[in-house]
User: What shape does this take?
Amino acid sequence: MKIAKGKLAGLQAVSNARGVIAALAIDQRNALRTLLAKAKEAAPEAIPDAMLEQFKEAVSRVLTPHASAILLDPEYGLPAARQRAKSAGLLLAYERTGYDKAVPGRLPRLLEHWSVRRLAGEGADCIKVLLYYSPSSAAAINDVKHAWVERVGAECAGVDVPFFLELVVYHDAMEEKSLEFARIKPEVVIRSLEEFSKPQYGVDVFKVGVPVNMAFVGDMNKTDSAYTREEAKKHFQRAAAAAGRPFIYLSEGVSNETFNDALELATEAGARFSGVLCGRAIWKDGVEIYVKRGLPALEEWLQNQGVKNIQRVNERLQAASPWFAFYSASTEAALSS
Assistant: This one.
């Protein structure tokens, strides 16, 4: 595969010298508002926008010196984007947060007052959209999603900016954290990666959860296990083989310890992942500190535990493969010139 000049520059901007993406994610909107509300013992609608903006600014200011890039949203994250380290690239989210629960299918929606060109104008090196996807959904629902991704891919190609597709897999009849879903998750991830690796979608990098639920990796003699460690490693290998593009792992809201365990398992499996876009596993525990004790306490926590969290993840990236390994040899030559 070859890559256009602008996309090459964008990917280079969000990766480290090795071509590995060691990025921090804080594009959460409703999820962050819910976390703040829970810590404050208030309704989400009682949380002012300024709290989201201030929290994102602190995370960006303190942690981006330890990241190759940061993922933010244009709704509450632009002030934080301006406070990132000069060495850190910028990804901006293009989708509206969440989905309309009154409409079947968890259909995606774009931010109404934004376009890829406008996001690039705000300094975005890369564009990201999140898609809830289930290969087993009705064909009519998935056809809408396929067309939506094609549309975003074409828009990114027109502006010559990299397109990151975040896949959040699910099954309509199952709870995502259940043992039932854990057993089918590998196949759901694999089938989703196979679909969106097709050239018509124009995806440059996948952002995807690991293909197993780490809570159910263990001894198959236990009733609450979905796979042994060896079986889990095979699922990592199969998912990596299904991705026809570079892919990076997201933390899916798990703890820092659990995410690091997942990266260790990916390394043992020899999965050719190209980095991470890690969010709550880095900064989630700082939310309550911010709400209860204020901004100075949050900054102190970020400078200590937050930095330790991101450094721990970065250490796991020694085994990651450069994203340009998936593209032509001329791409690697361009990077080294």
The longest strand covers residues 126-133.
